[in-house]
Write a structure and sequence with these properties.
Two copies of one chain form a homodimer.
Chain A (H helix, E strand, L loop, with lengths): L2 H9 L1 E3 L3 E3 L7 E2 L1 H14 L7 E5 L4 H11 L3 E4 L11 E8 L4 E8 L8 E9 L3 H12 L3 E11 L4 H7 L4 E11 L4 E4 L6 E2 L1 E2 L1
Parallel strand pairs in A: 1-13, 4-5, 4-8, 8-9, 9-10
Antiparallel strand pairs in A: 1-2, 6-7, 10-11, 11-12
Helix pairs in contact in A: 2-3
Chain lengths: 202, 202
Amino acid sequence: MNFLEERIVKDGALKEGNILKVNGFLNHLIDVDITRHMALEFQNRYRGEYITKVLTIEASGIALACMTATQLNVPMLFAKKSASLNVDGDIYSAKCYSFTHQKDNHIFVSKRYLEPGDKVLIIDDFLANGQALLALTDIVRQAGAEVVGCGIAIEKGYQGGGDLVREKGYRVESIAIIDEMDADRHIIRFKGDDNIYTINNI
Amino acid sequence: MNFLEERIVKDGALKEGNILKVNGFLNHLIDVDITRHMALEFQNRYRGEYITKVLTIEASGIALACMTATQLNVPMLFAKKSASLNVDGDIYSAKCYSFTHQKDNHIFVSKRYLEPGDKVLIIDDFLANGQALLALTDIVRQAGAEVVGCGIAIEKGYQGGGDLVREKGYRVESIAIIDEMDADRHIIRFKGDDNIYTINNI
């Protein structure tokens, strides 16, 4: 197990409906040490790549994206989920289907802050069905900028979103890829590791 | 002018309805250098205080709070605006009146992550009418924890929220306090500085 997988097993929990809770260090209470560690990991994996901007989507991706941008010494841009930016007029927007709410949501980025020539690293905390990531790549495409790749903390490999994004030609680097988890059996299995680990339920 | 006031004058803009836009470095595109500079400023102003946690509210406060927590080497917790946490059952919630939408919103924090004994520094990007800040202090009070103080990037002094929070006995440290701004005249004035500065309109 790597540092993030270890932390998931130690402090994560499964709840009914096979939901992985990592509220204790990733997306509610933020452990700044592991966040910095993940940022360094993205920097290492994308070493040698020219990156001008980090892009994420509000809200839970912001801390990780901010730390990664700090590490790379480039600005960080976050897409907004509400249309308050609309009042500015000049925005890129993309559809993002929500399986949870079974409807299309939209995300927005001001045209002013994404330009042709930008080399973009997309960062997010979770990758499940890939809809949010694809919406972000669509916004980069609209701007005439280039996606260098994606950096994800936790990919739910069994939901197929990562493969969907990779099949479209994007590089996706996920620190922990979950191949299987089961709240009934209290277990989790990571890609590249045949062991099955016990994890708490809540 | 201090570093943040200079940046507001240089890259901020006023739009009709006396709205200050700082999307270019503070709450859409994030300049990591000025964010780190602000985090260091909060660290300096609260030097000697014992702080165990940084608390903010999603979404635009997260980057600044994350950088401040990194500087202080403590965890960062962000209150959520949607009740998705409700499914966890154990939450603190507080009302937060929105003047924009003229209704009560609620913010949520999981009880698990805020405890009696916590010494909390509340961080946010903007302070206007003070409703969000008061809701955050209310959540800290519910947890039996203590508010050490608040660190704000931009306080709209003329809206009175900062005074309201200070009158309740909380320490509020704002890096830039705007005493006056006027989109028609393209001007802005900061607290403690008699000069009037020209600012762009959009």
